[in-house]
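so the lab meeting is tmrw and i was supposed to have these ready like two days ago... anyway. pasting both below. for each one the top line is the aa sequence and the line under it is the C-alpha cells. i havent really looked at them closely yet so no promises
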Amino acid sequence: MSTLTQLISEIKASLETVLKLRNTKKKKEDDSYVSEGDLLLDGICMDFIKKNYASVQIVTEETYSKGDIDLDATEYTAVVDPIDGTENFVSGLMEWGVGVCIYKGSQFEEALIALPELNHYITSTDLPTEKFDSRIYGISSSLTKEDLLSLEPGFEYRIIGCCMYNMFNVVTGRYKMFQNPKGASCWDILPGLNIAHKLGLDVTVNNKKYNGEFLQPAEKYRFRISN
C-alpha cells in the first residue's frame, strides 16, 4: 500500500474544518489568494510527510522562497500543493485539489492527487481501473483571449482553473488531452505528470518527452498529456 494512501484518511478527516475556512482569503504578492484552508492542509501534509519519511525536504507552494533544490541533501524530497485551485475554493466551487509528489533522490517514488470535496483520490500505486473514452480537450485557465482564438478547431474544449482536477480528468480518460502552453509550477503538475507517465500516457514537458524527472520550483513548465 502506498504511504500516501494513509494521507488520504487525514485529508478526509480535516475536510469539514477546511471547508469552514473558505471565507479567510488573503491576497499574496502575485495577486492570487491564500486561505486558512490552504495553510491548514499545508500543515497536515507537512506533518504527515515528516512522520513517514525520516530524511526529507519539503517544497510547498506556500513556503518555497527561491533557488534550486538539491536532491542529494536528503534521502527524500516532497513537493506539495495544499490547495490547487484556491480561487475556486474561496469562491465556493468544488473543483480544487491537493497534490503531493515524493522523490527518493532523483527517482520518482509516489504521488497523490486528491479532490476532497468531490471525494476522488488517486495515488501512483492505486491507479484508476475505470477508463473513459472522451473527446474533450482540457486547456489551462491561464490562456489569454488571443490564445483561445488561435486554438485548433474541431475539438470540444473545457477550461476549469484547477490543475489537479484537470490532471485527474485526463488520467481517467475524462479528457482526451490536457495541456498548458503558458507554463505551470512544479507543485501544480508533478503528481499528475508522474501518474500519467506511469499509466503510459503521452506526456511532454517543454516539448520533450517526460520520463519522471524532478522539476525545479524556480521555473514554470509547458506541458501536454494525451490519451
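ok protien two:
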Amino acid sequence: MHDTGELEEEEHRDFKWGGSWSADEPSDFHSLPYLWQLDRGGSGWGPDVYPGGRLALGPDHLQDALGLMLHSFVEHLPAQVGENWAGFVITHRGRDTVQITFEPDSGLRLFRYDRAEHDSAEKTAAMHEIGWQQRERWRWAAVFPQDGEDSAARAARLIVTQLRSDGVNNPGEECALRDVTCNDMGTFDLYGTGIGR
C-alpha cells in the first residue's frame, strides 16, 4: 500500500524539480508522471494542490512535449471520455497562433486563423512549406486523422514550425494556453504542453 499524499508529493517534486536546465540539454517530458488531468467533479475530493507544468526551454523541447501529449490524447482520451472532443489554443503576444483540436472520429486538427480573403502565391507556398495543408475560409488547416505516434509527432512539428516562423525562441516564456477544454465539461489541465497558462 502507498499513501496517496506521499505519492502526490513525489509527483509534484518531479514537476517542480525535474527537467533540463538549458535548451541545449535533451528534454525530459517523457519522465513526467502524467501529461494532462481531467476533473469532472466526481465522487471524493479534488486535490488541494495542483502541480505546475514544466516549461519548454526551446522549440525542440516544445516539439517533444507536444508530440508526447498529443499522442496521449489520441491513445487515452477516447478510452476515458468516449466520443468527447478536446482542444486548446496556443497564443503568442496575446494573439491566437494555433488552435489544436482532437476528436476520436476525425483525429488531430490544427488551425491558424488568418483574416485575409485571398493569399498571394508566395504566401500560399510559404504556408504549405510550414506544413499547412489547405486554406479554409478565414483560416489555414491541417488534419492528422491517423492514430498513433507519427500523426502526433507530425502535428507537433507543424505547431513548432509555425511558432518559429512567428519568431518564438523561448515558447515556455513567450507563449500561453487559452480555451483549454474537454467537451466544455470539467477542469482540463495540460501539464505536459511545455507552455504555461
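from a quick look at the 2nd one: The beta strands are 37-39, 86-92, 95-103, 107-113, 134-136, 139-144, 175-182, 187-189. The mean pLDDT is 88. will dig more after coffe
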